Amino acid sequence: MSHSPLSQSTNAARRIGQFLRRGDQFIWLSGGAMGLAALLIVGLLGLVFVSGFTFFWPYNVVTADRADGTPVLGVITNSQEERLDPAGNVMKAAQTQFKVGARELYGFDFIWIKKAELSNFRVDPEVIAFERQEYGDFYGLLHGIEYKGKPVADAATAWALLQEKRPEARDLAARAKKIQRDAIGEVNAEIQRANLKLKVARRKAAGAALDPAFENPLKESLARNQARYEQLRLEAEALSAQAEEYAAVVGTVDGQRKTVPLAAIVRAFRPNQMSKLEKLGMYFSRAAEFVYGEPRESNTEGGVWPAIFGTVIMTLIMSIVVTPFGVVAAFYLREYAKQGPFVRMVRIAINNLAGVPSIVFGVFGLGFFVYFIGGGIDRMFFPDMLPTPTYGTGGILWASLTLALLTVPVVIVATEESIAAVPRGTREGSLALGASKFQTLVNVVLPASVPGILTGVILAMARGAGEVAPLMITGVVKLAPELPLDGHFPFFHLDRKFMHLGFHIYDVGFQSPNIEAAKPMVFTTTLLLIAIVVILNLFAIRLRDHIRKKYQTGAF
Q1: pLDDT in tens, 328-369
Q2: What are phi and psi for residue 101, nearest 5 degrees?
Q3: Strand-pair partners of 485
Q4: What whole-number distance in Å separates Cα of residue 78 and Cα of residue 80?
Q5: In 45, 180, 237, 534, which residue has its Cα 20 to 30 A from 112's Cα atom?
Q6: d(Cα 527, Cα 10) in Å, to the nearest integer?
Q7: Cα dist. 473→302, 361, 371, 393, 398 in Å?
């Protein structure tokens, strides 16, 4: 039986109407949007992983001839294919990027050369690569070794002597640095404490003469420490001079020569002679230095250990502060506050706080925590240190409190939802057995709510660890020579400034004078920050699951 065109169109319209009324189109749209978002996230993570993990590999150093006859030597780091306009004309020629190193000689690390101008690519086994304390990498040829400015090895024997003497020179330089940072630092701290005691005593004496029994021992201590300081300074200078006695004479592919002190060479290797296994060892050595070492060359090289330490400590302090405040506020709003317009306004304000730009919290933290509270602490407890502030300037404590304030709405909302999920019968059973309301909340509701509370803490940690804007004005710095935790009393220095991985990424990626050299560090630091956030979250999730199994109730 055939249907007329009119009935067919009516049936089609009816099916479309049913489809629209069921909302299937929104289901497909939502699924497609979620798939697209997941694809973008995976693509971003893939880019970060690939760029981050390949940074430490020691690639071969390539030599090529240019069209004008001059050679170029370096590591090929990038290439661009030829670009044509719609008419087929060449808009941009194909290019190859070389990392040539020797920044102090060329004024740059990287150079782009048209592929048409390059020929005769080759891998010279005698090429050496230096990773240096300053001026980045150096690629070239080793011509000899000098001792106190006099040649002691030619090109044939220089490599063996370099391998022998470089560890000694590096050890001498490390000992000199340790004296400057630790021993001299302790002496300076003693001098500062003695001067502070004298300053306090003179202020209290109000112009009167000090008791010799009090003043003379302090002056003797100052004299001893000044003499000790001078002795340590001379010892450190002698070690530094001894470390720089041996130097490598190296040359570039275009004939330029320079000397590099062996103490300034972090690594020396011949990449074109290394086997895959040797390169793998170099890869892990560089990766270990990146995690445990200190930064160098304006943070574009070396390690990020101070930033890792600062990020983890700040996140832990923030979590310790935000959890009790968020939980107590949520219990009060849910269990004790009289429900009404005022409480509804408070909840609306809490929800709106989550949408306030983070830089606003940073400005508030600067004004309230740093200037008001920190300045008040300085005036009350450290008046003799003024005008040099102790707590009246940015530090890890104020940065952590600022981020705690930023993330407390997340904990409050998650805790309230977790409290609401506890079955009413559980509460009533506790009350029927004679427990007070407080005992019921502490012994029944709180344990059952802990998994939900930890969910809020996990979200707070993830957000706090990645924030940068508030930290820039409440305590984070480009380079912190001293960690917040050390061996000097009181051991944990909450007033100190600190480094942070998020700010490190911003600084290296957008403030570095050498953007091309900084790109790999941006990806590796991003990868490390993601890993730290994941590890902290996994630990919290593991703890949440453990507590959830321990307190199995109908709330779950």
Answers
A1: 999 988 888 888 888 888 888 888 887 888 899 999 999 999
A2: 65, -160
A3: 492
A4: 7
A5: 45
A6: 57
A7: 26, 10, 12, 10, 10
- C-alpha span between 545 and 431 (Å, rounded): 28
CA distance 133 to 1: 89
How does pLDDT run across 440-498, given as a tens digit for each residue?
Answer: 888 888 888 888 888 888 888 888 888 888 999 998 998 887 888 877 777 788 888 99
| CB 426 within 8 Å of CB 400 | no
Separation between Cα atoms, residue 20 and residue 467, nearest integer Å:
42
What's the Cα-to-Cα distance from 7 to each of 4, 10, 15, 19, 132, rounded to whole Å? 5, 5, 12, 18, 83
Closest to 480 (Cα-Cα) out of 232, 286, 304: 304
Tell me the sheet residues that pair with 79.
96
d(CA 556, CA 549): 10
Q: Could you tell me if 103 and 128 are in contact, meaning their C-beta atoms sit under 8 angstroms apart?
A: no
Which is it for strands 137-147 and 128-132: parallel, antiparallel or unpaired?
antiparallel
Looking at the DSSP bridge assignments, the partners of residue 235 are none
Determine the Cα–Cα distance for residues 513 and 499; give it in Å rounded to an integer: 19
> What is the band of 555 on the pLDDT scale with cuts at 50, 70, 90?
very low
pLDDT tier for residue 278 given thresholds of 50, 70 and 90: very high
Structure tokens at 504: 């490190």
Interatomic CA distance for residues 457 and 460, integer angstroms: 5
Name the one residue in this structure whose structure tokens are 């930064």. 295
The per-residue pLDDT for range 494-524, each reduced to its tens digit, is 888 999 999 999 888 888 777 777 888 888 9
Decide if 448 contacts 419 (C-beta within 8 A): no
Omega prior to 271 cis, within 30 of 0: no
The three-class DSSP label of residue 118 is: strand
Calpha distance 122→192 (Å, rounded): 60
| pLDDT at position 3 over 60 | no
| HSE value, Cβ hemisphere, 13 Å, CA-based, for 333 | 27
- CB count in 10 Å sphere of residue 125: 10
* Model confidence pLDDT, tens digit, residues 24-45: 677 778 888 889 989 998 888 8
**What tokens appear for 398 in the block?**
């104020």
DSSP collapsed to 3 states, 190-227: HHHHHHHHHHHHHHHHCCCCCCHHHHHHHHHHHHHHHH
Give the model's pLDDT for residue 552. Answer: 62
For the chain, the structural domain boundaries read 62-123, 150-272, 307-550
What are the residues whose beta carbons fall under 8 Å from the beta carbon of 138, sequence distance 6 or more? 101, 102, 129, 130, 132, 250, 260
Both tokens assigned to 131: 């990773």
Write out the H or E segment, with its range, that includes residue 29: helix 24-53
- What are the b/e assignments for 5-43, b being 16+ CB within 10 Å? eeeeeeeeeeeeeeeeeeeeeeeeeeeeeeeeeeeeeee
**Assigned CATH class of 307-550:** mainly alpha
